[in-house]
User: Fold these one by one.
Assistant:
Number 1:
Amino acid sequence: MSPAILILLAFGLSLAGWLAARSRAWAFKRANPAQRLASLPGYHGWYVALWVAVPAVVFAVAWSILSPNLVLASVLADPAASALPAFGFERQTILGEARAVATGKAFAVFNPLAQPLIEPFRNALHRYDIIGLLVTLAVALGGGTFGFLRLRPDFNTRTRVERSVMGILLVASLVAVLTTAGIFLSLLFETVRFFGMVSPVDFLTGTHWSPDPMAASADPGNYGAIPLFWGTLYIGAIIAMVVAIPLGLMSAIYLTQYASSSVRKVMKPLLELLAGVPTVVYGYFAALTVAPAVRDFGQAIGIASASSESALAAGLVMGVMIIPFVSSMADDSIAAVPQAMRDGSLAMGATRSETIVKVLIPAALPGIVAGVMLAVSRAIGETMIVVMAAGAAANLSANPFQAMTTVTFQIVAMLTGEGSFDHPATLGAFALGMLLFLVTLTLNFVALRVVKRYREAYE
Amino acid sequence: MNAPLNAAAENVFPEPVAEAKISARNVSVYYGAKQAIDSVSIDIPKNYVTAFIGPSGCGKSTFLRTINRMNDTIAGARVDGEILLDGEDIYRSGMDVVQLRARVGMVFQKPNPFPKTIYENIAYGPRIHGLTTSKSELDGIVESSLQRAGLWDEVKDRLTDSGTALSGGQQQRLCIARAIAVDPEVILMDEPCSALDPIATARIEELIDELRGKFAIVIVTHSMQQAARVSQRTAFFHLGKIVEYGTTSDIFTNPRQERTKDYITGRYG
Ligand SMILES: Nc1ncnc2c1ncn2[C@@H]1O[C@H](COP(=O)(O)OP(=O)(O)OP(=O)(O)O)[C@@H](O)[C@H]1O
Ligand SMILES: [Mg+2]
């Protein structure tokens, strides 16, 4: 039985608990109208509903993790399982086939060894489904009864409900935090394995990158990631920023200082729409429209090496993509500069543009810088555009018309290649991912600190 | 009703009447459809301090801001009538607002130093107006402005500190120094002491008194005592009009209008 059904069941029961508890509270009220209830009847309802739902949902989630192992254990205890190979891939496949037939996802097995296991699987699944259902019901009813029996007119359910609401919210927010920690740990684990095969020094300082998934052993000389770092920085932090910083800043200035409110009302959402365009669409645009134009332009001005995939094409499109990041942060921070500052400058006889350049931008600078940092962190983590337009060649060059590759591109290439998961040509992806994770984390962290300090300065 | 300057001269005010630096004629100001100033005419003399008093919302700030055309920066604000500065209409087409604001400086209610060093705050005006040709000349202007604003001794060793790191009273004197650094002819002050304690207020009032020899000063204030202490002329605004205008001593000792009397004796909000 799927956990979703158990959870639905728990919610259904908790609705019943809510109704029962609320009518009990009304009954208290009718029995003794002179006495005030310590909490409103609705809170009594929620109190019991929580007692029904929370333990049952917790059990259902735990059960969904636990029960497959229990099923497996009981299948393996069956005499038919003794014929299975002891370890490895084949054993997993046979068990998988038997399970698929038992659950009705497949109709027949390929491996004859799986045939005798179908019946034990079916029985075990059935048995544990029933157990899970009964225990969920028992837990829900037990919790509900406990809560219901504690109801008294003077029993303050309101504070208890408030407290559990806080608990539920806390758990919800922990999910995101724990996910981040989980990502970090899984990356860390694979990264350590990679660095067991290729030394971090070779990886971080080598200038030659050509991992060979077919090579029997890793040649550290092929794992020098400098060209990737360079490509990432050149495309994401240099070319893209050359586009995004001036355009983003100027549109922010126009929107905050010059545009009439009706223009602003139209332009600002349109600009922010840019941030919502799926990156794969930018990817098409870069690969099909911008890259050929860039190549033709390069050849026209006599650069023979101009190729149909180029750092410039990817960087330009990426720059356009992150204009909204720069402009919306700059917009917020320019708008946050007190009006008094602007008036002070204008009253000195400064023109509008003098006021912007000499007073508003310097005052808003921390916020603008933070916006740029967030944009850089977004740009260097961007994948689709570079996959489609930047190329795969790990060139260490300053020629923007040449193909270049980035960290994100290589992560994709390594993980979708045919290498096995214990080969450095695959594991390298995790080391690259780890590095990217750390760099973007640092950028975001610093940017948020800067923004916070800046906010405090104008409070 | 507008009392012309000559009417005031009949009274006991001892000093001779100066020629008008600023003459407003039938000035009306609208914010969108809402009228904030209704056909105000007034002559503001040189070398005196003129105080604008009146209940909140009566249009003092609005009228003050017409004199350096700061209302231009408010979307939807419109000014009718004419305002002459030395006989020249500042609302005529082709008027250079940048030049006007260099001649008519302004100090705001809340000190608003730029988030720059003390030195840069003062140097701001001279730089944008190209008043100096050398660094030493600029240094000279910074020093003399701070000196005239009575701030030099307190900040001369920390000119590179941020202007926002000063106390409120020091910041307001910095803003006054910033305004006089471009050598204006008129200084407009909108409740310049309302964010300051009595000691800082007394410093600013002293300063206003010293500066009046050089500039025409217009000050908006909610404090009757302050108006009486620092100004020689007072205009009482009410509901977008000037009810009474004359020498400060007349207005305070011998108001001709009932509404003026009620206001200065505190019987009116
Ligand atoms: N930017 C604006 N937009 C629309 N209406 C405004 C604006 N500024 C002022 N007003 C209106 O114009 C009228 C006069 O305002 P003003 O600020 O000149 O009054 P004030 O005499 O300076 O008052 P206070 O003593 O409170 O500073 C008020 O009714 C005010 O609501
Ligand atoms: Mg005002």
Note: Residues 157-197 of chain A form the longest helix (41 residues).
Number 2:
Amino acid sequence: MQPIVKYTLRVCWQKKGNAKYISHLDTQRTVTRALVRSGLPLYYSQGYNPHLKLVFALPVSMYQEALYDLFDIDLLERVDPAAAAEAINSALPEDMTVISAAYPVKKFKELVFASYDMRLDTALSAAEVTEMLAGEVRVEKKSKKKCQVVDISPMIKSLTAEDTEGGVILRPVLSAAPDAYLNPKYLVDFLGDKVKGCDTVRTMLFDGDMEPLK
Amino acid sequence: MNTDRIKHILARVEKPGRYTGGEYGELIKDKNAVDLRVAFCFPDTYEIGMSNLGMKILRDCLNAKDWLWCERCFAPWDDMEREMRREGVPLYALESGDDIKDFDIAAFTLQYELCYTNVVNMLSLAGIPLFAAERDESHPLIIAGGACAYNPEPMADFVDVFSIGEGEYALVELCKLYREYKKAGRPRAEFLRAAAKIKGMYVPSLYEVSYGEDGRISDFRSKYEDVPERIEKTFLTDMDSAPFPTCYEIPYIDTVHDRMVLEVFRGCIRGCRFCQAGIICRPVREKSPEVLDRQAREMYKRTGYNEISMCSLSISDYSGLEGLLERLLGWTEKERINLSLPSMRIDSFYGELMEKAMNVRQSGLTFAPEAGTQRLRDVINKNISEDEIMAGCAAAFDRGRTALKLYFMNGLPTETDDDIRGIATLAQKIVDLYYSKKRQKGKGVTVTVSVSCLVPKPFTPFQWMGQDTVDELKRKQLLLKECITTRKIVYNYHDSEVSFLEAVFARGDRRLSAAIAEAVRRGQRFDSWDEFFSYSTWTQVFEAVGIDPAFYANRSFDYDERLPWDHIDCGVTKEFLRREAELAVAETTTPDCRSRCSACGLQDKGCTLWKKGGAN
Ligand code: SF4
Ligand code: SF4
């Protein structure tokens, strides 16, 4: 039997609005069905329980939006990326939008940083927020096994803050490498009670040279 | 919908995706361009409601009209309800996010009795006066339908109009009339009077009930001459041309039935004497395999689901089953779509095709013998013999199945302790059968015995019969437990207190509205959920409103007593039901409608089987 030739298509998409209330598992299922509806020549793994080869670069957490997110999908034919982008987009719910599709330039494991826009609902000023986040940033980090207090400041590459009506916009660039991902919610945790709410939007994914991951 | 006003709430509740809408396939209309806005309200969670085929069909029928926009609304889980009440956010519809209280019509579907508190609680959460008598044209019209509407009485005080039967066309009629009256600015009372003349529509406030000293209904009549004494159910006659939605919202979050649902036919040829669906859904009306195949293909293209579930009362009785499976398997295998069939009759053809059609991943099978002895199976008219049961199980084992689930019922009329022991004996025989066969090494068998309690339902031959008391049901459940001696048999049974409450409302009259209102006032809702059901609260509620629940659940009604639902005409006659009740006691079975017509009352009312059957 000849081996099946696969073409990996990289889809750049956004998850906005009410889609932020959808968990990653549910997002995966939604995207899977959209791909089926799109009519693209999808590759399925062989075997007892065939499934698509669908990989997300860095899923955003629930309650966060993404203006820049990537997923790879394996196809059986080399299709026109623009047409594929259009087909997938029309099969997605309104709050999930495909911006473009292309054949991958880099591997997902070359992902190193991610940038965010965080609208803080707070009485603090931008200067105060920057000041607080300048030194050690010790937060309680929960993983499946344990809960420990760690200093996350090495994982904050840079940040700026700006005063706006009703609060502060914080724009951090955080570590997003596969083995060193920092969820932006820890910054909010650290700022504590003084922040009443926060809308987080991921704006970009970068490689180690701060080039957008494509 | 715009979720800004509930943003902070959504951050605090479980599964916020239940409350935001915006799924793929959601239908948005311009609210300023329609004359009528309807909220289709499902009185249970999003996950359950979104799995309901009836709701999809009816919404589709309504939305086919360009002058009407029908949106969705579900019962919020208690964490969400708490937040909504605290923040003063009234119940809203998922598409527009607009408050239900500003809609023209709120339509509730009543699928099971234990959702009644949810209906009333949703009215309360919407800020709509609970009782019909307190509402006027400034409030939404509250309508209700579904299987439980066949005995609408317990909900009579809350609902303006009940739709009896299949609502595909009747509901549109009702909306048309409402639109007319709304345009003309005519009062609610006038509208109700006119609505009562539409076939299938029941307006409870237009009827008067009196009770005798013994508490039984002494008189029930319409208050006006132009309001019919009996309300005839509406139903479709041709299923091939029946409206069927092939496009609908694909939920983001996991729901109970997250797959394509193909309705194969309505009605059932069998007349199991405990079964309400088997009576109220008569006559049998089938769709043709060609139409089903076309609908399935279209659904697949539009939904992207990888499973088709065929839905009907007794799927193996579908006359075109083989042809349908052949057609479907012709393309679904290639597209990696699984077919799934609901609980099968144990004697049904269990061939190659069927095996292929069954979900390959599902290693279990379910069968419903319902009673443990032949005598009792004859009483309930479950026309199946022990040999057939064993043959069905043998076929399943031969094909490598190692898990079987059997459904039974306790509290059936004439049931003795021997019948209960018979359940254990039958299950043991099935276990023994497995071990008497050559089998894969090391693989054991599991026979699950699931026992519910009979709830005597209106429009069944058992409608007159009092339910076993809770204590008696518990005794029977324990007796069966003692009879099961092997771990190969897994035994589970329903909460008899829940079944008791179901029986109260199934056989109740409109005096029960007071109990429902009081229960809601005390915070009772989601009664069908273990975590919310509270027998002690309900006992207190009945005490507080001065109602003896046993009067409804445990009392045997006289044959000549005026039953609370006697003004509803389900097509099947009371004489037929009584004849069946008497045959039950005589342990005599009645053949299915394909073998012979038993003249249930539908002979000249749309049944196509009776002529064929009668010829035999
Ligand atoms: S087979 Fe019996 S239990 Fe099943 S739907 Fe028909 S009448 Fe009801
Ligand atoms: S009329 Fe006869 S064949 Fe038709 S549903 Fe009734 S009993 Fe069955």
Note: The longest helix of chain A spans residues 24-38.
